[in-house]
Amino acid sequence: MSTRRLPKVLIVPTREQPIFSTRAHVFQIDPNTKKNWVPTSKHAVTVSYFYDSTRNVYRIISLDGSKAIINSTITPNMTFTKTSQKFGQWADSRANTVYGLGFSSEHHLSKFADKFQEFKEAARLAKEKSQEKMELTSTPSQESAGGDIQSPLTPESINGTDDERATPEVTQNSEPRAEPTQNALPFTHSSTISKHWEAELATLKGNNAKLTAALLESTANVKQWKQQLAAYQEEAERLHKRVTELECVSSQANAVHTHKTELNQTIQELESTLKKKEEEIERLKQEIENARELQAQRDSLTQKLQEVEIRNKDLEGQLSDLEQRLEKSQNEQEAFRNNLKTLLEILDGKIFELTELRDNLAKLIECS
């Protein structure tokens, strides 16, 4: 299948007026692979909808300098598809290609898609009106053609030929002059009839002129309808060729649809992976928060432990002091015990001596 090439220079007729414009990066499908996009503009260019009021046609046109990179006529069969948040595409069977537009925002893409749907619906309504008009014009053409065949009207058929109009005079002159009385009687009456027929003849001539003008007008209309019929036949042949091209393109469209399905599956897998990664990030964030809380608790416990250690050192110092004091007290008690024991021994000795002294005194008393 041969690929149509766009003209290098596009001249927009003055009857076409831009009705909506936007800026976008323009792409075309690779004619060889039918998969990859080929950029046709190095930067964002103006993409406009044009309306031809004469032909009632909507077109999408974009120029890169003086070069036409988009020249697509909108038809009811076209569909504009959003393939991402900022990219859309449509297939043009006349140009045998697929156009793609990359917008700066999702809002611009949605606006362009809404206008595409609006002008597509307008093209469909215009096509229906054109078909109705063709049906209405084809009906009177058949009726006028049938009337021409059945009763063709000519001046001669209404007024008669020159020979026919001369026949009555020849008949009157051929009558014999042998009976003048019979011819003289109806002379006045024949004059009245002649005037009546002359008035009828004038009326018929007027009617004939009107019918002739109507016939000429009908003939002109027939020629015009024939021209329109030929144009419609050419359009039908062109549409038939387009249908053939669309059937050829349908296989390519199936490949594009398969590729699109694969891309959608890949996007879904990537979205699922992204969702899992986001969940893992949330889990890691939670773990980090928990680790921070544990670190704060650890710092608090470390500080408390240091305080406890300091207090423990103080207590150890106090304990050591108490131990020293206890040991000193024990030594003093031991010394006191020793002194008390010695004192008791001395006291026992003194008591024993006193006892002996009492006994001796008692004995002395008894002896005296």
UniProtKB/TrEMBL annotation:
The gene is HOMER1. This is Homer protein homolog 1 isoform X1. It is found in: Cytoplasm; Postsynaptic density. The keyword Cytoplasm applies. It comes from the Eukaryota. PANTHER family: HOMER (PTHR10918). Residues 151-160, 169-186 have a biased composition (Polar residues). Residues 215-346 form a coiled coil. It comes from Apteryx mantelli (North Island brown kiwi). Residues 11-123 form the WH1 domain. The keyword Cytoplasm applies. Belongs to the Homer family. Its main location: cytoplasm.
